[in-house]
Amino acid sequence: MELTEAKALIAGKIETKTLVNATISGPRQKSNELKRIKLKPILLKDTYHIQFEFQYERILKHENLLIDEAIERLEIFYEDFRQFQFRFEKESVQLQLSKKFKVNLKTTKEEAQQVELAHDRKKSYLLEDGVPTPFLVRLGVQTPDGKVKRQKYDKFKQINRFLEFVDDSIPALPQGQTLRILDFGCGKAYLTFALYHYLTEKGFEVAVTGLDLKREVIEECNEIARDLGYDGLDFLVGDIHDYSGEDAVDMMVTLHACDVATDVALSRAVRWGASVILSVPCCQKELNRQLDCAPLEVMLQHGLIKDKFASLATDSIRAELLTILGYETQLLEFIDLEHTPKNTLIRAYRTGKAPTEEKIDRYVAFRDMLGAKPFLAVEMSERLGQISSKLVQ
Ligand SMILES: C[S@@+](CC[C@H](N)C(=O)[O-])C[C@H]1O[C@@H](n2cnc3c(N)ncnc32)[C@H](O)[C@@H]1O
Predict the structure, then answer these.
(1) Pick from 315, 319, 321: which is nearest to 381 by CA?
(2) Whole domain around residue 67: which residue ranges?
(3) Among residues 83, 118, 153, which one ends one of the domains?
(4) Which terminus in the chain has less CB density within 10 A, N or C?
C-alpha cells in the first residue's frame, strides 16, 4: 500500500467520528523536541474536536482541532514520525513507516467500545459549576446554589487547573501520614483553600500553612478557615525570606510569588526535603539585570524581548537546578495565555537521583554563556558544592 492510500484510509475513519484515541511516536530525528502526540476526541461548545496532546521532552501542550484541521495536521506528522496507532470504536489501525516511507499497515477488529467524549466545561473539571462547594461559596466564586459567578469564571478555571496538578502529584506524596504543606505568598488563598479541600476530600490528613506579608488578608483567611471548620489549615503573616519554622515539608506551593521570592521558596523546599514542589513564578527580574551575552545582543537589545528571554531563561535555570538537586522537574502550562501571562508552572518531584556530569556541564555552559549568577544557585550553593565544585560561582 502507498502512503497516500494509508493516509486516505485513516482520514476516512477519522471523519466517521469513531476515534477513541491515537498515539503518534517514533520521531524520525532523535533531536526532534516533540517526542510523542496523543489524540482523543473532545466536545467543545457541543462541537466535535480532536485534542492533540504534544509531549515535548519537558512540557505538554494541547491543541483542539476540528476534524478537517486534524486531518491536515496529521500530514505533517506522517513526514516526521514513524509509528501511528489509531483506536476506533470497532477496530484499531497500526501504521508503521520505514526510513524510506514504506508502509506497513495493520487493521485489527476490536470489541465495540463507546467513545467517551470529554466535555470542555463542567465534565472535565474537578470542581463543578452547579455543585456548591463550601469554600468556593464562601470566597464568592460560586453563588450559594453552586453557580459560578460570571466574573469569577477565570478564577474557577484556574483553581481547577491547579487541582489537576495537585491530583497528578498525589502518587509522589508520602502516604499514610499527615502531609505538611506550605503555600508561600498565598495572597487571598483561593488556591490554598482549594488544595486543602481537595486533599481532605481525597481522605488525606493535611496540615497546610499559607504565608503572606499582608496582615489583613491573612486575618481574613484565618477567619474563613475557622468558619469552614478547616482545622488543618492556618495562615501566618510573614516574609518568605525569613520563614524558618520547619524541619521537613511534604509539599511546597508558591504561586505568583514575585521575582526571587520564588527562588527563596524553592530553596527552602529543597532543604526541607519536599516531595512535591508546585511553583508558578512571576516577574522574573533578577536575571534581566545580569544578562551579558554578546551573541544574543540581536535579541537583548530590545527591552521587550529581553524581558521575555530573561523570564524563560530564569525558569529554565530553576528547572535545571532542581533536576541537579535531585528532582524530576517539568515546566508546564498553568493556564491559557489569554487569562494571564503568568503561565509557567514548575513541577518538581523529589527522586534523590544524582545528576550526570553531562547534565552539570550543560547547565554550567548555559549559565556562563549568559553571564548569570542565578539567585537560586547562590541560595543553594552549599548543597550544589557538595554535588560539584563547578556549580559554585
Ligand atoms: C500575585 S499574589 C499571588 C497570590 C496567590 N498565591 C495566587 O496565586 O493567587 C503574590 C502574593 O505574594 C505575597 N508576597 C510577595 N512577596 C512576599 C514575601 N516576601 N513573603 C511573603 N509573601 C509575599 C504578596 O503579598 C501577594 O499576596
Answers:
(1) 321
(2) 3-118
(3) 118
(4) N
With a cut of 60, say whether residue 124 has pLDDT above it. Answer: no
Cβ–ligand 1 distance for 194 under 6 Å, the answer no
Give the Cα separation of 356 and 231 in Å (integer).
44
Number of domains in the chain: 2
Element (H, E) at 37: strand 34-44
For the Cβ of 261 lying below 6 angstroms from any atom of ligand 1, the answer is yes
- Contact indicator for 132, 125 with CB cutoff of 8 Å: no
User: If you measure from the C-alpha of residue 153 to the centroid of ligand 1, how many angstroms do you get, rounded to a whole number?
Assistant: 21
Global pTM?
Answer: 0.71
Q: Are 299 and 273 in contact (CB under 8 A)?
A: no
191 CB near ligand 1 (under 6 Å): yes
Helix count and strand count (H, E) for the chain: 13, 15
- Cell reading at 344: 509557567
The DSSP output letter for 283 is -
Domain match, 285 and 271 both: yes
Instruction: List C-alpha distances in Å: 57 to 54, 74, 233, 327.
Output: 10, 20, 36, 15
